[in-house]
Amino acid sequence: MTEKIETILETRNVKLWYGQKEALHGIDLDFAKKGITALIGPSGSGKSTYLRAINRMHDLEDNVTVTGSFNLMGKDIYAPTMDTVDLRKKVGMVFQQPNPFPFSIYDNVAFGLRIAGVKDKKVLDQAVEESLKAASIWEEVKDDLNKSALGLSGGQQQRVSIARVLATKPDLLLLDEPTSALDPVSAHNIEETLLSLRDQYAMIIVTHSLSQASRIADKTVFFLNGNMVEAGDTRKIFLEPDKQETADYISGRFG
Amino acid sequence: MNAKTADKIATAVIYAIAGSVVLVLVAMLAFILVRGLPHLSWHFLTAQARSFEAGGGIGIQLFNSFYLLILAMLISFPIALFAAMYLNEYAKPSIWISIVRTAIEVMSSLPSVVVGLFGFLIFVVKFKLGFSIISGAIALTFFNLPILTRSIETSLSQIPDLQREAGAALGLSRFETVIHIILPASVPSIVTGVVISAGRVFGEAAALIFTAGQSAPALNFGDWNPFNTASPLSPFRPAETLAVHIWKINSEGIMPDLSAVSAGASAVLIIVVLLFNFSARRLGQLLYKKLTKS
């Protein structure tokens, strides 16, 4: 990732401690303005920890210390002047477990906009429709917008969760194993959704599924024991990785 | 004895014990209702109590009980809500928090007669509020606050952290997350808790004897100005409640039909408390359906 491409996020020497235990040992990574980057690696390698540092989800926990620089479009994410509320509007997140609010589908998707003060019904209607379309679930739910999102299947709930994030128009989308709690068909639908969004959004996805990374990611980053081992075009990482550890992991020799 | 037999015996014993709990309750309810129901009539429910002759009712006491309950809830609910929100959503484990929790526990185990005497000394005497609805409502607040706080806190804690993360990830502040996601999601179970605690408050006597007083002056139900002492809404009038009335007539009543009045009043009290309890769950389910549209 050394060639000069337009980046949305550059992190340098990112270290993170849980209490006294150092969990990330200085991560340098750049992310392009568009496209999907997959973070892969065995459990405990620090990929989710790194992902959650990008929208400061660790702020919700005690005892977590983060150092290093996160340059998000010219601003440091951890600068004292950075408002986490603003940050998370720019950096959306989709979680492993689908987590729609116990409201109607419409209210779920309109939620972020309403909080931001949008009251115009037409604007909301349009945003809800666009977001649900972008998340490839509009056709399935367009007649049931007033029904509870909790009544949907897991895969549908996850796409509503994605639509909910898209409605707030983030610049960067973080996805923390978004398909690992879903059945294969639902997982496939989510992948299709992500592929359809790759030209409009920068997305960083943590995944345990190597095949998923190879199917959807433009770039792939391999994490191991809190270190970033290797980053590059997905093809290269999978076919001719530079590092032996990467080759071992890809070929299933550990992890 | 093999494991299977032991299991069978244990199961039987557990069933028997659980059954006996139900039996005690049913026997008590049946006793109270069988004795009390024959005395119930529209007249009994609405008429004023009489001190010396037969044929008195419990109208004013019944009204007082409800009015006092509503006032006590109006005072205690916001406090309990914010206390619970603080404890469950904001507080981080610390000495301060364990002090708060211990305080709530101690408060919930205070004997209600002590709460009543405290209310008497502070509000009735010191603050010169006299035997009044407002003194009673404050005493009931002390009595109710710990249970209500605990129940709301439990309701909030049942909302999974995923929802809090989802709120935070959408750019909501902690307060917005609580107000717009956690509270709406927990409304049904909060309402259930409130109604159940209302049942407890409704039947409380000891805390009120020395605060809301033991007399029920005649009310003018045509006068709804809360600043007139004869108005039913006046918070500064003495107000004997139904539970206090039962205690009073049994300890010093001299009307000829006092056992009938006592039995009837007890039946009414029990019926209202049961209604609270049964409706609580139902109401919670209804609200959940309505709010989540499921």
From TrEMBL, chain A:
One of its GO terms (biological process) is phosphate ion transmembrane transport. Keywords: ATP-binding, Nucleotide-binding, Phosphate transport, Transport. GO terms for cellular component: membrane. Residues 9-250 form the ABC transporter domain. It comes from the Bacteria. InterPro entries: AAA+_ATPase, ABC_transporter-like_ATP-bd, ABC_transporter-like_CS, P-loop_NTPase, PstB-like. It holds the Pfam family ABC_tran. GO terms for molecular function: ATP binding; ATP hydrolysis activity; phosphate transmembrane transporter activity. PANTHER family: ABC TRANSPORTER I FAMILY MEMBER 17. NCBIfam families: 3a0107s01c2 (TIGR00972). This is Phosphate ABC transporter ATP-binding protein.
Automatic annotation (TrEMBL), chain B:
CDD domains: TM_PBP2 (cd06261). Residues 62-280 form the ABC transmembrane type-1 domain. One of its GO terms (cellular component) is plasma membrane. The chain crosses the membrane at residues 12-34, 66-87, 99-123, 129-148, 258-280. GO terms for molecular function: phosphate transmembrane transporter activity. It is a multi-pass membrane protein. It comes from the Bacteria. GO terms for biological process: phosphate ion transmembrane transport. Keywords: Cell membrane, Membrane, Transmembrane, Transmembrane helix, Transport. Pfam families: BPD_transp_1 (PF00528). This is Phosphate transport system permease protein PstA. It comes from Fructobacillus ficulneus.
